[in-house]
Specification:
Radius of gyration: 21 Å
Number of helices: 11
CATH topology of one domain: D-Amino Acid Oxidase, Chain A, domain 2
Number of strands: 19
Strand content: 15-25%
Structural class: alpha/beta
CATH architecture of one domain: 2-Layer Sandwich
Distance between the termini: 57 Å
Bound molecules: flavin-adenine dinucleotide
Largest sheet: 7 strands, mixed
Order of helices and strands: EHEEHEEEEHEEEEEEHEEEHHHEEEHHHH
Shape: globular
Length: 410
Amino acid sequence: MTHSATIIGGSMAGLFAGNALRKKGWDISIHEKVPVPLSGRGAGIATYDELADLVFKSTGNNNVLGTSAKSRISLDQKGKIIASYNYPQVYTSWQYLFSILREKIDNKNYFMGDDCTEIHHGKEKVTAVFNNKKEKQSDLIIIANGIKSELRHYVDSTASPQYAGYVGWRGVVYEDQLSKKSLEMLSNYFIVVLPNNQQIAAYPIAGEGKDPFKIGNRRINWIWYKPANTKKLNTLLLGKSGQQFVDGIPPNEIRNEIVQDLFKEAENKLPPQLTELVLKTSQPLIQPIFDLESDKMLNKRVITIGDAAFTARPHIGMGVTKAALDAFTLSDYLQNDGYLEELINWETSRVESGKFLVNRSRLLGRYLSEPEKNETLVMPDVTDVLKDTAISLNDIKTNLNNINNSILNN
Ligand SMILES: Cc1cc2nc3c(=O)[nH]c(=O)nc-3n(C[C@H](O)[C@H](O)[C@H](O)COP(=O)(O)OP(=O)(O)OC[C@H]3O[C@@H](n4cnc5c(N)ncnc54)[C@H](O)[C@@H]3O)c2cc1C
């Protein structure tokens, strides 16, 4: 008998789940609320061997996933190298990864404009209800609809995103828009700089269109973390139209004076290569940073995966790999008929792993929120930041010393 799963959310976690279950012979359908093909999210994604392996297992894609930086460095304000760590790594773009995963899902199984609003448990089946009056009955529902999930409560009614006290300003610039001098550093290295109470990271990622990995066609991605208490956050999220946004702001609503302040700060605080990068970004984006932890990922026939279950801060660069692991480990449990009883073991191990990653990302970002009154800000050693940021799960196990040292020092 063929089993069926309805997957809510057509981004990374949804596509990994669709591909993993498809491989195990499940009948799947993916429902994405956005009515047009997802695109332009612009984020750079750090990859690891384990992610490349999971992409290969889902899609058969054996090609390198992105473009590489040969090692990691930090710069002083004049732009000279002051620290380095040898960690060659492949970086890709959200869009490139999406296209590889999406290609393997038949269009007849991927529905756009399907906004799931309700879930109903039956005895043998579960039903997803969509705002366009569509209903879909299946053996399982997999909720893969991201940190803002309004369906999470069907699995865990207590979990909700918590603001971390800082934002990431981010952007991308095409290599051919940058000066030769800045490119020497920006296209070859993963760069981290730590202005007081802040952090900026930059690295090359795939371009868009033809030959996305060719030097010159690639883009340089940057993210600049800056503390913002709730009052400051509200100021940043007050739109041009006068609308007060709450947990994110559409790019076209970001006020010009806020962007000008950012540019001024870049000129005062950053090395020249990063100043040029920030100033040449036509539309910087603001990403408030949130943590999300769940105690449960399973309620009978309904499951949460990816950012809908756990969202770690971007410092660990692990969201996509974690989503892929949620999906693949789940598909292993779904191979036999008695899967419903055994899923509890899947849940236990994924909750443990999710909590570990969220906690680790909190430790890496703890100095980026404003210190409490009476607390002295202790900045980490930049070499430890180079060693701990966006590393593979295998390296996390061996690198735990760096983060443990920072905990002791703080
Ligand atoms: C700045 C930044 C940098 C990052 N860097 C990295 C990195 O280097 N490496 C890495 O691995 N990860 C990184 N991440 C994290 C990674 O991008 C996320 O973890 C990942 O995209 C989560 O995928 P997801 O599918 O779970 O959720 P999402 O990508 O949020 O997708 C959820 C989807 O569900 C849809 N949806 C929502 N509600 C409904 C509904 N009711 N019905 C139907 N559809 C719905 C949404 O439209 C959306 O398409 C980064 C994140 C950020 C913000």
